[in-house]
Specification:
Elements (H helix, E strand, L loop, with lengths): L9 E2 L5 E7 L20 E2 L2 E2 L2 H9 L4 E6 L4 H8 L8 E6 L8 H6 L7 E7 L2 E5 L2 H11 L3 E7 L7 E6 L2 E7 L8 E9 L3 H4 L13 H10 L3 E6 L3 E5 L3 H18 L6 H7 L5 H10 L4 H9 L5
Parallel strand pairs: 2-5, 2-7, 5-6, 9-13
Antiparallel strand pairs: 1-2, 3-4, 7-12, 8-14, 9-12, 10-11
């Protein structure tokens, strides 16, 4: 039945299984008091919950088997919002992170659900990616990954980010919020890992703030010369929605693009339909359950129904 989805697995060209992890925990303290009663990834970014954006990014990468990690209080809200993923022809499982112990802990929490040959794409729940041919870039990066791949974007304020340094075209170090940054390429919250990540993560020691840092995992790959940096060029936008100004900027950006082009950014129904994971009948049911708003009108246009 629609409510009992079997595990759907995407395999890359080498036969490796790809699974996605969305990190939607954390206290969201920079957005307090808004996040005092709700997870920040449930807040709206213009016309959609924030969690729709990282979810859509994984779907664009052809990943259909997805774990959402959140805290004990909010995981039920994600379940109520997203269900088991069958609405979009995907499989969603939920994992509880009792304390915000770092992004890398996400791999440990999901380990019991993963197979030894599973490769992983991990994304921060407050990151938004947009750009022409983004799906192609993601799929090719997964296909060509040889260890770990991180996505980097040029920023004006490199002191506020994790910055990757190069010697020629080879990445040699990643510095967290450097006082004297050697480049302005910031590491975004999107990471591709081969199946060795499930062993490497147990070698990481907690940082001074008591967290298992994702940068520590990346450093292990860097030391093995197995870290690839994929630069997001001028045609791409990366938005981190972790503070009030950034959240407002992201909403305004989404609004501007959608109003001008008449196309929605990170619409899971559209991605699933274009990927042939769901059909017109499924879209029609979604429209019936959400009559009268702009979102349902967009879905009508998607399947050729008159408004």
């Amino acid at each position: 039945s629609e409510n009992n989805v079997s595990v759907l697995r995407y395999f890359d060209n080498r036969g490796f299984s790809m699974k996605g992890i969305i990190m939607a925990g954390g206290k969201g303290s920079r957005l307090s008091p808004v996040t005092s009663v709700i997870s920040k990834q449930l807040l709206p970014v213009y016309d959609k919950p924030m969690i729709y954006y990282p979810l859509s990014t994984l779907m664009l990468a052809n990943i259909r088997d997805i774990f959402i990690i959140s805290d004990p209080l909010n995981v039920v809200h994600y379940q109520n919002l997203l269900g088991d993923g069958s609405t979009w022809g995907i499989n969603i499982k939920y994992v509880v992170q009792n304390k915000p112990n770092g992004l890398a802990e996400g791999l440990i929490l999901c380990k019991k659900f993963l197979n030894e040959d599973d490769n992983i794409v991990l994304i921060c729940g407050d990151n938004i990616f947009y750009g022409h041919n983004l799906a192609k870039l993601l799929i090719e990066s997964i296909k060509n990954n040889n260890g770990a791949s991180v996505f980097a974007c040029r920023v004006n304020n490199p002191k506020d980010f994790g910055i990757v340094n190069f010697k020629g075209n080879i990445p040699i170090s990643i510095e967290e919020k450097p006082k004297n940054p050697k480049s302005n390429l910031a590491i975004t919250g999107l990471y591709i890992y081969d199946n060795s990540a499930l062993k490497k993560v147990f070698k990481i020691e907690p940082s001074k703030r008591g967290e298992l840092e994702i940068s520590s995992l990346n450093q292990l790959y860097l030391e093995e010369n197995k870290l690839t940096v994929v630069e997001l060029g001028r045609g791409y936008t990366w938005l981190d929605t972790g503070n009030p100004d950034a959240l407002l900027t992201a909403s305004q950006f989404i609004q501007t693009i959608e109003k001008r082009q008449g196309l929605k950014i990170c619409c899971p129904e559209e991605i699933a339909f274009n990927n042939k994971w769901i059909n017109k009948d499924k879209i029609s049911k979604l429209i019936y359950n959400n009559q009268g708003n702009d979102y349902s009108k967009y879905l009508k246009k998607l399947i050729g129904l008159n408004s």
